[in-house]
Design brief:
Helix content of chain A: 10-25%
Radius of gyration of chain A: 44 Å
Strand order of the largest sheet of chain A: 1-2
Largest sheet of chain B: 2 strands, antiparallel
Radius of gyration of chain B: 19 Å
Number of helices of chain A: 7
Strand order of the largest sheet of chain B: 1-2
Number of strands of chain A: 2
Structural class of chain B: mainly alpha
Oligomer: heterodimer
Structural class of chain A: mainly alpha
Order of helices and strands of chain A: HHHHHEEHH
Shape of chain A: rod-shaped
Number of helices of chain B: 4
Helix content of chain B: 25-40%
């Protein structure tokens, strides 16, 4: 004898089949809008502010704001090379740094830190006059030198603070001592050759 | 003019043979001495051009804190640079001040 509940699996199959057919159809059945309102209706219907059933529509769908992409910050360096190429040169092609700095063509920082503070240059000219040859007088500009360096760069390891205490000779300089610690290695005199320092010779 | 020539002659006599003036490419160009063994002879010695650095920095930025002003006084190794010392004070991965000392940039120093 058949059970009284034998119809149930068959009915279940029918329901599943009906739902499957419904899901596959391109246009959603009209009764779905009763359940899901206007989101599922066609594009043509969505242009109106009232659904077919006369119910007010929900506000138009707005796509969520796109999540801002995390961009790797690319540091763009100044064109140091181009700037270097553009600097004034002496007659032997060397950069005239004093001229470049005085003319504000460059603004070199005194430190690596972003807020590195610059010290005021010491404005003090020192006349160095050889006793036997006053025509070889040298005017040493503290201003030019302290625009780049600190007092401690030269004092007192290279030059005593006390005037006349340190003997400066061309022999020493040419041997890489005294002024020659920098001049002839890392710094060119400006202008070139003897008159750069022995200013009387240039006249 | 004659006075100047005489002065120059006297100066050169006085000074002995003056050292030849360095060209624009030579001045301030430091070629690092290799302190390690032969193992890495395939990697060319690094150079340090003072000139290009002067566009952006004064002497005080690096001297004397990072580098005492004496050739050879600072041991510059890739390990030190990686630790943020020596060149690594600027040439580090942050890239904020200058290009990083990464594999993409070897030849900028090891020319």
């Amino acid at each position: 004898m058949r059970s009284s509940t034998a119809w149930r699996p068959r009915l279940a199959c029918l329901v599943v089949a009906a739902l499957s057919i419904g899901a596959c159809s391109t246009r959603p059945p009209a009764w779905l809008s009763l359940v899901f309102d206007d989101e599922t209706v066609t594009a043509a219907d969505s242009r109106t502010s009232v659904s077919k059933q006369g119910r007010p529509r929900r506000p138009h769908y707005k796509p969520p704001e796109p999540v801002a992409e995390v961009k790797v910050e690319e540091v763009v360096y100044p064109d140091w090379s181009g700037l270097y190429q553009s600097l004034p040169r002496d007659d032997e092609g060397r950069v005239q740094w004093t001229k470049a700095l005085a003319g504000k063509l460059i603004s070199p920082k005194p430190g690596i830190a972003e807020d590195a503070k610059d010290e005021e240059p010491t404005d003090m000219d020192i006349e160095l006059i050889p006793k036997s040859q006053p025509e070889f007088k040298v005017v040493f500009s503290h201003k030019v030198h302290t625009s780049w360096m600190a007092c401690g760069s030269c004092h007192s390891a290279l030059f005593e603070m006390e005037r006349g205490k340190t003997l400066i000779t061309m022999e020493k300089i040419n041997a890489g001592a005294s002024c020659g610690v920098c001049h002839g290695k890392v710094a060119a005199p400006e202008p070139t050759a003897c008159p750069a320092c022995h200013s009387e010779m240039g006249k | 003019m004659i006075r100047r020539a005489l002065l120059l002659a006297a100066a050169s006599l006085l000074a002995g043979a003056p050292s030849a003036a360095l060209s624009a490419d030579e001045i301030g160009m430091v070629k690092m001495a290799r302190k390690s063994g032969e193992g890495d002879a395939s990697i060319s010695r690094a150079v340090f051009p003072h000139e290009i650095h002067r566009v952006a920095f004064k002497c005080t930025a690096c001297h004397e804190e990072l580098f005492p002003m004496k050739a050879g006084a600072t041991l510059v190794t890739m390990e030190a640079i990686g630790d943020g010392k020596a060149c690594g004070a600027c040439h580090n991965d942050s890239g904020k001040v200058a290009f990083a000392s990464s594999f993409a940039n070897c030849q900028r120093c090891h020319q």
